[in-house]
């Protein structure tokens, strides 16, 4: 049933030309080089230190790995991480 609803939402999003990440409540991850990661539409921070940051989302846990990681900005809808980004994973 849930998959059916997601298909309906995806089709509606396409027909109305709406962003699918908003319609399906999915995170939008933007990576700039190896120095910055922005995660929009998150559900909160699970773990935070200078080598790993784990963020909860509807798609699963977003894991950012690197050195000297720092949360530069955190809002209810977006998290901005800076540092030496080595890897970004989504664990579902």
Provide a short characterization of the protein structure.
By secondary structure, this protein is of the alpha+beta class. The chain is built from 2 helices and 6 strands, in the order H-H-E-E-E-E-E-E.
Main attributes?
Immunoglobulin-like; six-stranded antiparallel beta sheet; alpha+beta; 53% strand; 6 strands; 92 residues; single chain; 20% helix; 2 helices
Radius of gyration, in Å, reads 15 Å
Lateral strand order in the biggest sheet: 1-2-6-5-4-3
Looking at CATH, which topology would you report?
Answer: Immunoglobulin-like
Low-pLDDT segments, ≥5 res: none
> Regarding CATH, which class?
Mainly Beta
Portion in helices = 10-25%
SSE pattern: HHEEEEEE
Shape category: elongated
Domain tally: 1
Please tally the β strands and state the result: 6
Word description of this protein:
The protein is α+β, with helices and mostly antiparallel strands and 92 residues long. The chain has one domain (26-91): Immunoglobulin-like (Sandwich), CATH 2.60.40.2000. The chain is built from 2 helices and 6 strands; from the N terminus they run H-H-E-E-E-E-E-E. It has a 6-stranded antiparallel beta sheet with strand order 1-2-6-5-4-3, with no helix packed on it. A hairpin with a 3-residue loop joins strand 5 (60-74) and strand 6 (78-91). It is elongated and about 40 Å long. The two termini are 19 Å apart.
Layout of SSEs?
Blueprint: H1 2-15, H2 20-23, E1 28-32, E2 36-40, E3 45-48, E4 52-57, E5 60-74, E6 78-91
Antiparallel strand pairs: 1-2, 2-6, 3-4, 4-5, 5-6
